[in-house]
Amino acid sequence: MSRTLLVLGAGPAQLGLLAAARAAGVRVAAADRDLRAVGAALADELVEVSVEDEDAVRRVAEELRPDGIVAPGTDFPVLVAARVAAAIRLPHPLSPEIAEAAVSKRRQRELFAAAGVPQPESRVTRTLGEAEDAAPALGFPCVVKPPDRQGQRGLSLVRRAGELPRAFELALAASRGGDVLVEEQVDGPELTVNAFSVAGRFHPLTVTDRVLAEPPAFGVALAHVWPSEQQVATCNLAIEAARAAAEAVGVRDGPTYTQVLLGPDGPRVVELAARLGGGHDAELCEAALGVDLNRLALAAALGDPVDEADLRPGAGQGGACVRFLVPPVGTLERVEGRDGAAAAEGVHWVRVYREPGFELRELRTGADRAGAALATGATREQAFERADEALARVRLLTA
Ligand SMILES: Nc1ncnc2c1ncn2[C@@H]1O[C@H](COP(=O)(O)OP(=O)(O)OP(=O)(O)O)[C@@H](O)[C@H]1O
Ligand SMILES: [Mg+2]
Questions:
Q1: What's the chain's Rg over C-alpha atoms?
Q2: Which atom of ligand 1 lies closest to the CA of 218?
Q3: 151 CB under 6 A from ligand 1?
């Protein structure tokens, strides 16, 4: 009898894992509060529920009795998955305690400090007054964010004191627990370390360059490019920082996605996520190295053993890139050119996340991106160009 996996989320961030589960013959029940989510077609069953609502997810799980639960691409549901799995005694790569640390930037700051993991300097504040004390001490520009959100919700770069009240208000409004982090801005390029741990052994896979949008879309990724243009020694320092971060948080099994900024005095860990990257990073890894990271995450979620041979990079490609589609503003009427774009040389796929009728907004956060393309090539530059040209052929026509 085929096994059942409960996947928290059916949005763009879950597409790769949903497809991998289907390919593996696993029955997929996907939970999402939006029944029109782009991944709905990849699920055998769609349950309308907010994946942030632990009680509701638990009720779904009790009824469904799945063989595993996974939140592949978004943060807070990682904790929901771990708690519900523990409650109904399913095998799961993360304990609720470790998952709690994995979804809290604040807790990570404490754990990293205790373990000596390099990170941006930061202060926890609860009032604008506290933030006004913290910001000049850290220096402008600084970064203000809620400690328990993702996808750049409530995140701002604050260039001068006058911008602080609004940034604080945005972060406070998004914060679940009422804390707001004020951080030193680490000025330098950014790497993402995608890795997979087996029984406490951290296996680094792809290290990618995160190409960033300009403010006001501060922190939004426009592309992930592999291999990094940084020197191998620099990438290795980022890998060591990510390894130390995983140890500090206590992740011993399953995927990790670690954001590392390269400051003038070395790497600093922005945060670690105990899941796959939400920007098709696992598919990029498979295209780049031949390591099927979605399949590995699926195994972890079902409690299946992972063969470390499956983590060994193959001959690989010269370069690989996920490039995101920044949409025009307006009501989406029609999408043209996608099939032609996807058929171009080196292009693995082109995705549009939105259906006609969707209100496309100006780019502010990752959720405003409207699609993506994955391409490979002889070099990182060629992979980037191919993905970029593919997206240039996709036309989102608005009213
Ligand atoms: N202290 C910092 N210094 C410099 N850049 C930062 C800092 N904090 C965040 N950023 C930028 O903003 C991006 C998102 O930051 P962060 O991960 O803290 O927020 P998030 O809401 O979790 O976003 P995501 O879902 O993309 O991870 C980072 O990848 C980085 O580019
Ligand atoms: Mg983050």
A1: 20
A2: 12
A3: yes
Domains of the chain (ranges plus CATH)? 4-92 (3.40.50.20), 121-184 (3.30.1490.20), 187-315 (3.30.470.20), 317-399 (3.30.470.20)
DSSP for 220-251 reads: -EEEEEES-SS-HHHHHHHHHHHHHHHHHHT-
Nearest-ligand number for the alpha carbon of 157: 1
Give the Cα-Cα-Cα angle 234, 235, 239 (nearest 5 degrees). Answer: 120
Q: Please indicate whether residue 263, judged by its CB atom, sits closer than 6 Å to ligand 1.
A: no
Minimum CA distance residue for ligand 1 atom 2:
185
| Closest among 170, 209, 191 to 319, alpha carbons compared | 209
Within 264-312, strands assigned E span: 266-273
Site to substitute for ligand 1 among 109, 122, 123, 145, most atoms within 8 A of C-beta: 145
Regions in the chain scoring below 70 on pLDDT: none
Nearest to 162 by CA among 122, 125, 131: 131
CA of 217 to the centre of ligand 1 (A): 11
The per-residue pLDDT for range 293-334, each reduced to its tens digit, is 999 999 999 999 999 899 999 877 899 999 999 999 999 999
Q: Which two tokens stand for residue 108?
A: 């990570």
What pLDDT does 1 receive? 72
Residue 221 CA: nearest ligand 1 atom is 26
Q: Whose CA is nearest to atom 10 of ligand 1?
A: 219
**Which protein residue has the closest C-alpha to ligand 1 atom 15?**
219
- The 10 Å CB-count burial string (b at 16+, else e) for 232-247 is eebbebbbbbbbbbbb
pLDDT value at position 398? Answer: 97
Q: Is the peptide bond before 227 cis (omega within 30 degrees of 0)?
A: yes
